[in-house]
């Protein structure tokens, strides 16, 4: 249940670590896995801590307004077969306006609902999906 | 009680008023709702009325013998008599489809079967599409065909909980990786969500189990 002012962790290497939701797109209610939201970067990762080089580090800065896709939610989600999935935190991945991920790597498990919502590019970046 | 007219000349007027008093008060004090006039008797139609005159009367005045009779229909047949407990019947029929041998039911019927899965056990559920999910069983909800087990695990340092419908055709197999060291003293182990009691990741335990299993099976069957 991601809505205005919700804080999410950003699990890609775009440079943001904590972002705040300011809008849920294409929906009149709380966002869940696979939904596109607008976020403000609240906290950025320490530059160069990724270890992948200075070119990649921190593509976004604190205060940037970006689009993002929710990949994990605490609120349980029901699958079509009746099973429920619940994660320990809320997390998202930053994307650009075209819908491509800004980061090149992701660390952390993501929900499988992304597949049904045409985010297979994000799904393929993720190390684990449930 | 009226005084004689000879004593009070104008008393005769009073007697008139008094006469009115005796009649009036009851009328004036009455509410409209209490004013009652009996329903006028229905005037019977003159006998031997020719048939052609009857059609000129309004319908409500036409002589009909069954005009006041309401038709009473017999009650529909009781579905309760046909099927006393439909839920049990549906459960039974669904069980026959999804668990004909009753193995899965025995595996999760932790209240009756001592060898069943119990809360606190580590389970490995394999789905039809090949994905496995491992986790500690926090709760087993025995609800007939809707029986489900809540599994908790930690993947990439993020807690993941999944409630799986045990009799779902998507579930291919359920294995007990490790029994709880001692039986849990409660049925719902939701306290395991707290940081203090969290089991964290069970992936290495499951990995060891799979390796052991593979060695036991002689490596001729993968996974």
UniProtKB/TrEMBL annotation, chain A:
SUPFAM superfamilies: Ribosomal protein L14
Keyword entries, A-Z: Ribonucleoprotein, Ribosomal protein
SMART domains for the chain: Ribosomal_L14 (SM01374)
Pfam families (alphabetical): Ribosomal_L14
InterPro entries for this protein: Ribosomal_uL14, Ribosomal_uL14_bac-type, Ribosomal_uL14_CS, Ribosomal_uL14_sf
GO cellular component terms given for this protein: mitochondrial large ribosomal subunit
GO BP term (any one): translation
GO MF terms held by the record: large ribosomal subunit rRNA binding; structural constituent of ribosome
Function: Component of the mitochondrial ribosome (mitoribosome), a dedicated translation machinery responsible for the synthesis of mitochondrial genome-encoded proteins, including at least some of the essential transmembrane subunits of the mitochondrial respiratory chain. The mitoribosomes are attached to the mitochondrial inner membrane and translation products are cotranslationally integrated into the membrane.
Family: Belongs to the universal ribosomal protein uL14 family.
Name of this chain's protein: Large ribosomal subunit protein uL14m
Automatic annotation (TrEMBL), chain B:
Pfam families noted in UniProt: Ribosomal_L19
InterPro entries cross-referenced by the UniProt entry: Ribosomal_bL19 (IPR001857), Ribosomal_bL19_sf (IPR038657), Translation_prot_SH3-like_sf (IPR008991)
A GO cellular component annotation in the UniProt record: mitochondrial large ribosomal subunit
Bilayer-spanning residue ranges: none
PANTHER family for this protein: LARGE RIBOSOMAL SUBUNIT PROTEIN BL19M, RIBOSOMAL PROTEIN L19
Family label: Belongs to the bacterial ribosomal protein bL19 family.
UniProt name for this protein: Ribosomal protein L19
Species in which this protein is naturally found: Penicillium angulare
């Amino acid at each position: 249940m991601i809505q205005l002012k919700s804080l999410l962790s950003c699990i890609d290497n775009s440079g943001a670590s904590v972002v705040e939701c300011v809008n849920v797109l294409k929906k009149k209610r709380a966002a869940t896995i696979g939904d596109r939201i607008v976020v403000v970067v609240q906290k950025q990762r320490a530059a160069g801590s990724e270890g992948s080089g200075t070119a990649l580090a921190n593509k976004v800065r604190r205060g940037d307004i970006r689009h993002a896709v929710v990949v994990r939610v605490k609120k349980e989600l029901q699958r079509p077969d009746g099973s429920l999935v619940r994660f320990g935190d809320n997390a998202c991945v930053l994307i650009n306006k075209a819908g491509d991920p800004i980061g090149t790597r992701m660390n952390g498990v993501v929900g499988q609902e992304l597949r049904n919502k045409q985010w297979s590019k994000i799904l393929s970046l993720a190390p684990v999906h449930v | 009680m009226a005084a004689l007219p000879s004593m009070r000349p104008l008393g005769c007027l009073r007697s008139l008023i008094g006469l009115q008093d005796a009649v009036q008060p009851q009328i004036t004090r009455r509410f409209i709702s209490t004013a009652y006039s009996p329903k006028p008797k229905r005037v019977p139609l003159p006998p031997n009325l020719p048939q052609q005159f009857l059609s000129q009367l309004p319908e409500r005045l036409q002589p009909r013998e069954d005009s006041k009779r309401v038709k009473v229909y017999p009650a529909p047949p009781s579905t309760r008599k046909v099927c006393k407990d439909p839920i049990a019947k549906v459960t039974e029929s669904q069980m026959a489809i999804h668990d004909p041998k009753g193995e899965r039911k025995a595996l999760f019927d932790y209240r009756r079967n001592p060898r069943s899965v119990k809360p606190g056990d580590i389970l490995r559920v394999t789905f039809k599409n090949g994905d496995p999910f491992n986790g500690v069983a926090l709760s087993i909800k025995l609800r007939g065909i809707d029986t489900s087990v809540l599994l908790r695990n930690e993947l990439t340092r993020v807690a993941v909980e999944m409630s799986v419908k045990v009799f779902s055709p998507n579930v291919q197999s359920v294995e007990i990786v490790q029994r709880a060291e001692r039986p849990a003293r409660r049925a719902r182990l939701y306290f395991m969500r707290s940081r203090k009691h969290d089991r964290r990741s069970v992936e290495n335990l499951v990995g060891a189990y799979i390796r052991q299993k593979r060695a036991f099976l002689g490596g001729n069957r993968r996974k």
